[in-house]
Structures are given as structure tokens and as C-alpha cells.
What we know:
- The chain has 91 residues and is α+β, with helices and mostly antiparallel strands.
- It has one domain (7-90): Alpha-Beta Barrel (Split barrel-like), CATH 3.20.180.10.
- It is 44% helix and 26% strand.
- The protein has 3 helices and 3 strands.
- A 3-stranded antiparallel β-sheet has the order 1-2-3.
- A hairpin with a 2-residue loop joins strand 1 (40-47) and strand 2.
- The protein starts with 6 loop residues before the first helix and ends with a helix.
Amino acid sequence: MTNSFPPAVSDRICRHMNQDHSDAVARYAQTFGQIPDATAATMLSIDADGMNLQVQVGEVSQPLRIPFDHTLVDAKDAHQTLVAMLQQMER
């Protein structure tokens, strides 16, 4: 696998995360993006090395790149990694 997912895979993951897990996306920004004041975030894209978010802090919107701790191999690995990141935040 190269360092990016096909656009359709990235789009599917982002659509799912934004529609069904928007609270988790905001928590990624707060914790892994080190923006504790983030009030909302949208996942713009995901690739093998990280995710790109648009983060809302008050009235300001800013881009944020969150790298993964390893290079993802496929969409299943992306799912497992995103879940593991959430579990890490709950500890």
C-alpha cells in the first residue's frame, strides 16, 4: 500500500466519522492534536500516515494534521487504529 488511500476509501471513512462519530473527531483534535479548547472538528481526509481535520475553536476554524503511530496498511487497519485511539483517551 502507498502512503495514501484511494479517494473513495478516504471519503467513506470521513463521511462515516463525521456523520456517526463527530464527538470522537472532536476528541481526536482535543487530545492528539493538543487543542483542548476545540469545540468541534470535521475529518477532511485520511491516509496511511495520518488524518486531516478542520477544527473549530470558538469562532476560529483551523486545519490540523494528526499523524498515526504507524503506517496504516488498509481500511481495516484505519478502523482499528481510530478505535484504539479512542480507547487510549478513555484510560
